[in-house]
Amino acid sequence: MGNDCFAAQSLPQDCRIIARGMVNLTTSTVAGSRLISETVHAPICRRYRILKRDRSTTILLGRIRASGRGKLTADRVLTIVAAVELPLLFLSLSFNSAPPSSIAAAAIRPLFNVSDDRLTRDLPSFPLEETGFSNMSSSLNPARGDHEFFEDPPTRALDEHLVEFSEALRTVAKALRRVAEGKASAQAEAAIWKRKYELEKERNSSLKHQEATKICHSGSREEETENLRNESLMHDSSPEKSVHCCGKDGICSHETLRDGAVDADSNKQRRMVTRKASFRLAWGCNGDNSGQHKHEVVSFEKGNITTAGRSSKQILLKWESQPQTVLILAKPNSNSVRSLCAEMVRWLKDEKKINVFVEPRVKIELLTESSDFDFVHTWKYDEEIKDLHSKVDLVVTLGGDGTVLWAASMFKGPIPPVVPFSLGSLESENYREYLDAVLKGPMSITLRHRLQCHVIREAAKDEIETEEPILVLNEVTIDRGMSSYLTYLECYCDSSFVTCVQGDGLILSTTSGSTAYSLAAGGSMVHPQVPGILFTPICPHSLSFRPLILPEYATLRVQVPFNSRGQAWASFDGKDRKQLAPGDALICSMAPWPVPTACQVDSTNDFLRSINEGLHWNLRKIQSFDGPRFVGRLSYCFLKQFFNTKKI
Ligand SMILES: NC(=O)c1ccc[n+]([C@@H]2O[C@H](COP(=O)([O-])OP(=O)(O)OC[C@H]3O[C@@H](n4cnc5c(N)ncnc54)[C@H](O)[C@@H]3O)[C@@H](O)[C@H]2O)c1
Ligand SMILES: Nc1ncnc2c1ncn2[C@@H]1O[C@H](COP(=O)(O)OP(=O)(O)OP(=O)(O)O)[C@@H](O)[C@H]1O
């Protein structure tokens, strides 16, 4: 429905518009020779009444003062342009004096194409006190209220017609949304296939260079590093030329870097040509550093299904060439972090001969401290962050969990291994030893899965481009924001309806994020290597709404229905809040780029230590024992024996 116009000449003192559905009205009033225009949005009175509700349709009755922000008076001539949005069902006018039939007919005819007779007969009257209009009465039918009016048989016929029309429009809207969602999931799938293709390409090139690798492996590590350096400096070659791969089990990473930028900070103005260090991932048993690669085997022989060996064992990262570039990300506004950062930058440069990147803010801080830090690299424009993953071998974070989240949010695609330095657990004097071990490898890592979120806007349903996907390491939250109403969210999993969330909101969390907001909302704590998506309601207004854990391959859709009383707000790892209007949806699936984080011991040990030390999980006073002595003695003997035989 486009813009329908009607003109109402010689308006009486006050008028009201009753609108069902959403409507934008532009009123232009002529006062003397002046034309005053203003746009009045439908929910101006914010008084909605739900007249009908079923699964697909909710009809809202909104009462709008046509005069909006200014009163209309008899000496003004009013022109109303109704810019009608979906789903407009009904629009009528009523006036406190003068039969309005001709005016209303003029109003309604272009909208609904109904005859004058019908309109005159159907025109309603409403109890005026409800909307704050005093001393107003209908000249047509003063005794009938709006409820009565909507029960009126001829109007009901019109109603049905309009409901049908609205439903047709809703179906079209749904189809368009499905197209947009299809596109979003196709994009995600394309990214996965691209990654697979890249891995396959790397594997093929590794086979080609197997001979070269043999020679490379026969030399010492130092020689290898030296060779690689020389080679990278000598050859301005293509990635394929300079790739070295072992061709063994596991996933190899070989990407070369040609940073053509002139190092402006250096007086030498030399051209920096560095190679991104390659590494190999191997799966083994817990604590087994042999790098044994176990595949999950599901066999089906003679009708018996058996599984042998699980693939998700501790993952080891082995460097195949020495890392040369480290990005240090430091928590702002902390003196201890700042001094540790300066010390670490100097140590990496002087002792390890490693190129260091920091954020522009940190470089300024370092230069304020001493001009010696001009060797430190940084970037000028945010767009340069996009290429950072191809330059950096390792990311070191100095701060807490928030700094790891910050690091993850900087890399909107692949991310190099992250070494988190939590200041509480790792004192500054220990960092050399730990970082030295990490640079040498092999190191245990945890692949922390991220979620990929797409916001699909109802308003942009017919646009080809959707909003950029957002990656989260902890969770995406959809909550009620400032609104005091319950959120009302419809949730679907792979196009199956899951449930409606009525409460403060919903958290879709990764297993890494299971110890963060999801935990506070009653979700379970899940080992980060367990592949899954946590579905945790926030303060649900239901006694039986328990949190769920869904498989990692699920695609979840959270939809704000049209009949939601309030809007919803999505936030990503506690940041970047986005408003979701009725009709908008958020689609969430596992991202193809996990965050590899270095372990202090191994995944399980780190996880259990973090919940015990960080969250004081199940900390309870030990029960006092005052039973008969011999039982105590027995227990003591048993424990003594146990500790003597088992070394823990
Ligand atoms: N009620 C809550 O518990 C609540 C409310 C809002 C946000 N959060 C969490 O805060 C996170 C943002 O963290 P921030 O540091 O930027 O904000 P912040 O500085 O407000 O820190 C929030 C706290 O959550 C902890 N935290 C973050 N991720 C964690 C994880 N994976 N496991 C255990 N603890 C974790 C942090 O250590 C910090 O103590 C959000 O992703 C969300 O999970 C929690
Ligand atoms: N490099 C950075 N630039 C901008 N903001 C950052 C950076 N690193 C961390 N932050 C932000 O600073 C806040 C605090 O960081 P962080 O959580 O690491 O510190 P913390 O709260 O002291 O540690 P913990 O997680 O142990 O409570 C977080 O909101 C995080 O997003």
UniProtKB/TrEMBL annotation:
What would be an example GO MF term here?
NAD+ kinase activity
Keywords of the record, alphabetical order, are: ATP-binding, Kinase, NAD, NADP, Nucleotide-binding, Transferase
GO BP terms: namely:
NAD+ metabolic process; NADP+ biosynthetic process
For the keyword Kinase, the answer is yes
Q: Which reaction does it catalyse?
A: NAD(+) + ATP = ADP + NADP(+) + H(+)
Q: InterPro entries given for it?
A: ATP-NAD_kinase_N (IPR017438), ATP-NAD_kinase_PpnK-typ_C (IPR017437), NAD/diacylglycerol_kinase_sf (IPR016064), NADK (IPR002504)
What EC number(s) are associated with this protein in UniProt? 2.7.1.23
The organism's place on the tree of life at top rank: Eukaryota
Q: Which SUPFAM superfamilies match?
A: NAD kinase/diacylglycerol kinase-like (SSF111331)
**Which spans are transmembrane here?**
none
Q: What is the uppermost EC class here?
A: transferase
- Which Pfam families does the protein's record reference? NAD_kinase, NAD_kinase_C
Q: Which family does it belong to?
A: Belongs to the NAD kinase family.
* Name of the protein this chain belongs to: NAD(+) kinase
Organism of provenance: Dendrobium chrysotoxum (Orchid)
